[in-house]
């Protein structure tokens, strides 16, 4: 992950973020109407994200009949997406709209860390959900014995702990030396070494994509086979599991289709105005998908 919301510099008035500081960045002042429209859009996305995920979280937490292993995994996914709506989307929106970063260099590092944790945790949740659906479809009779709520909770804890540790090591220099996140005062840019970028692409894009695609190819194959040879007594349950697996499969594939273009754009495009626009569009498509990928 890189190119944190590249900024379009096509504006009229150039000023300084901190006029009394010689190391201050310059800023380009946007027209008032553009500010208002962008803030309305960011606010709408944030409120929509928070509302949907709170609805999922409260529903699963309140109704005991929803305390199933799959719903526990969806609960974790909703928590990650709720953090996106509460923190990532508003802050990244302000970062995109405002020409200067006024939250300080420490929060710049913290914000990058939060983004990495919740996005990788969200992807990890989808991987675990894919495994859950794979077991449910391929081994429905032994599914209750192989998968239970305690195992689901354990997998969630492992997922979050792993992603916290992974994000910390990936962003170690940015966290320990926050002054590296800007070339001038009023800027928040994440600098990652090429070796770390390659590692991140393998860990958070290539490996999950391959794993999820393989799992759902097997699910589709098994579902087709079951449709031809299913016992009538198991027909209703099998159809239900297959339908759920296909629905989640669509969700996962849409998620990957949002991730892949962003990575390609961020890795291959430059910093001019046209490239910056493409990167920002891909970035906000990704954030929007994060807000709704469990619905």
Automatic annotation (TrEMBL):
Q: Where found, per UniProt? A: Cell membrane
**Membrane topology per record:** Multi-pass membrane protein
GO CC term (a single one): plasma membrane
The primary location reported for this protein is membrane
Q: What are the recorded GO MF terms, alphabetically?
A: trace-amine receptor activity
The source's domain of life comes to Eukaryota
* Record domain G-protein coupled receptors family 1 profile: where: 52-295
Q: Which Pfam families match?
A: 7tm_1
The UniProt keyword set, sorted, is: Cell membrane, G-protein coupled receptor, Membrane, Receptor, Transducer, Transmembrane, Transmembrane helix
Segments spanning the bilayer are 36-60, 72-91, 111-131, 152-172, 201-223, 244-264
Against Gene3D superfamilies, the record matches this protein to: Rhodopsin 7-helix transmembrane proteins
Write down the PROSITE patterns for this protein, in alphabetical order.
G_PROTEIN_RECEP_F1_1 (PS00237), G_PROTEIN_RECEP_F1_2 (PS50262)
Protein family per UniProt: Belongs to the G-protein coupled receptor 1 family.
Please report the name of this protein according to its UniProt entry. Answer: Trace amine associated receptor 16g
This protein's species is Cyprinus carpio carpio
């Amino acid at each position: 992950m890189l190119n944190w919301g590249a900024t379009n510099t096509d504006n009229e008035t150039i000023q300084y973020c901190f006029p009394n500081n010689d190391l201050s960045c310059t800023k380009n002042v946007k027209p008032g109407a553009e500010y208002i429209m962008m803030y309305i859009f960011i606010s709408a996305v944030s409120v929509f994200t928070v509302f949907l995920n709170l609805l999922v979280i409260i529903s699963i937490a309140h109704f005991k009949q929803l305390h199933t292993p799959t719903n526990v995994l969806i609960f974790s996914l909703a928590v990650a997406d709720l953090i996106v709506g509460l923190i990532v989307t508003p802050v990244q929106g302000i970062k995109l709209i405002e020409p200067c970063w006024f939250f300080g260099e420490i929060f710049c590092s913290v914000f990058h860390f939060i983004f990495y944790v919740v996005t990788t945790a969200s992807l990890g949740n989808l991987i675990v959900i894919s495994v859950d659906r794979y077991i449910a479809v391929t081994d429905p009779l032994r599914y209750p014995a192989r998968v239970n709520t305690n195992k689901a909770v354990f997998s969630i804890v492992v997922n979050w702990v792993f992603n916290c540790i992974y994000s910390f090591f990936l962003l170690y220099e940015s966290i320990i030396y926050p002054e590296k996140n800007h070339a001038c005062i009023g800027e928040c840019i994440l600098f990652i070494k090429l070796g770390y970028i390659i590692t991140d692409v393998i860990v958070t894009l290539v490996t999950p994509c391959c794993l999820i695609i393989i799992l759902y190819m097997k699910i589709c194959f098994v579902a087709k086979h079951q449709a031809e040879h299913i016992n009538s007594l198991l027909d209703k349950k099998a159809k239900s599991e297959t339908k759920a697996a296909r629905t989640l499969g669509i969700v996962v594939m849409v998620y990957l289709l949002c991730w892949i273009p962003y990575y390609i754009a961020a890795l291959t495009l430059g910093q001019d105005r046209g490239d910056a626009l493409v990167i920002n569009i891909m970035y906000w498509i990704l954030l929007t998908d994060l807000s709704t990928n469990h619905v």
